[in-house]
Design a protein that fits this description.
By secondary structure, this protein is mainly α. The chain has one domain. 77% of the residues lie in helices and 0% in strands. The protein contains 16 helices and no strands. Helix 2 packs antiparallel against helix 12 and helix 6 runs antiparallel to helix 7. It is globular. The two termini are 19 Å apart.
């Protein structure tokens, strides 16, 4: 029952903020241009600041190197997740404008806003070092290959022109630059002045609430009927809640012993984090790339709602694995 109530407690704030954006848009508080303005603010200012501060807050050089085994497991699971997601895109013939979002839903998760409080509630503070494994891999995956896949899935640009050359501007985005700078500071053991760290922290905290308000705005414009389970949405959600946990469990079970070489609490953390809902910023990224924003909003909202059911199931299965 702990997993059930924790999943509800982790999900309700997200749904309430989405509902707030929905209501305020319907009430006429937000102009038509407001969603686009939020998108620019998040991608170019708030996200880089938030990623920079979060990496330096949750990681140290010692923890980064000491958790190398868990990093290897979760990184391999992420790579395999990309391979499966690419295969699903081809088999299902997912159309352009959705492909990047589809792959990100399967592979990358909302680790900080949902994954962190969930992990602490289920396994306590002792699990924090192991949670950081998932956070590091997920952050690097999201803001390198994940973000590039969405940016490169612009349906207004011909596929042939995109194949002719690699656009480094799509890879070196502000969030990625923020992450790279953070790792430079981390590995060089450079201390950020407290006033600057606080400023960046405050700005970074805007990301999640603004992204969720944006989801509410898109839902308001599209109507609640836009939440549905078509072929592409259903497949992406199956990938997120079934395929990724299955890949993680398989790696742990068949790497030696019942759970490989990892402590059970670390293995359980990796499994739970592999089943966390999709990133709230996916509609923002889709908007910036002229992608299918309604599809991105649909899968983010649906994955958040389904999370209440999925995570108690995953938690109840953990004793059977270890």
């Amino acid at each position: 029952m702990t997993g059930f109530f924790t999943s509800i407690e982790s999900t309700l704030p997200i749904l309430f903020i989405i509902a707030l954006g929905f209501y305020l848009r319907r009430a006429g508080w937000f102009a038509d241009s407001f969603g686009g303005n939020i998108s620019k603010l998040i991608l170019n200012i708030a996200l880089p600041a938030g990623i920079f501060v979060s990496i330096l807050k949750y990681l140290t050089r010692d923890t980064l190197f000491s958790l190398s085994d868990g990093l290897a497991y979760f990184a391999l699971a992420t790579v395999l997740g990309y391979l499966v997601a690419f295969l699903m895109v081809k088999l299902l013939n997912v159309r352009r404008g959705r492909c990047g979002v589809f792959i990100n839903v399967i592979v990358n998760a909302n680790t900080i806003f949902i994954g962190l409080p969930l992990n602490v509630a289920l396994f306590g503070e002792l699990s924090m070092p192991y949670f950081l494994v998932c956070y590091v891999v997920n952050t690097l995956s999201t803001w390198t290959l994940g973000a590039w896949l969405i940016a490169n899935d612009d349906p207004t640009v011909s596929a042939d022109s995109q194949k002719r050359g690699f656009d480094w501007k799509k890879l070196l985005t502000p969030p990625i630059i923020g992450a790279l700078l953070a790792f430079v500071f981390l590995l060089a053991n450079v201390q950020v002045p407290s006033f600057l760290n606080s400023t960046l922290g405050y700005v970074g905290e805007l990301v999640t609430p603004l992204a969720l308000i944006y989801v509410g705005i898109v839902l308001s414009d599209a109507g609640l009927k836009s939440i549905h389970f078509d072929k592409d949405a259903s497949a992406a959600l199956i990938g997120r809640f079934v395929v990724m946990p299955a890949i993680t469990v398989t790696l742990l079970l068949f790497s030696g012993g019942t759970l490989g070489t990892l402590p059970s609490i670390e293995a359980h953390t990796l499994i739970v984090q592999s089943a966390v809902p999709a990133l709230a910023v996916l509609p923002i990224l889709a908007h910036a790339a002229n992608g299918d924003v309604e599809y991105a909003t649909n899968v983010v909202t649906a994955s958040t709602l389904l999370f209440v059911i999925i995570i108690p199931i995953v938690n109840s299965l953990l004793p059977l694995i270890a």
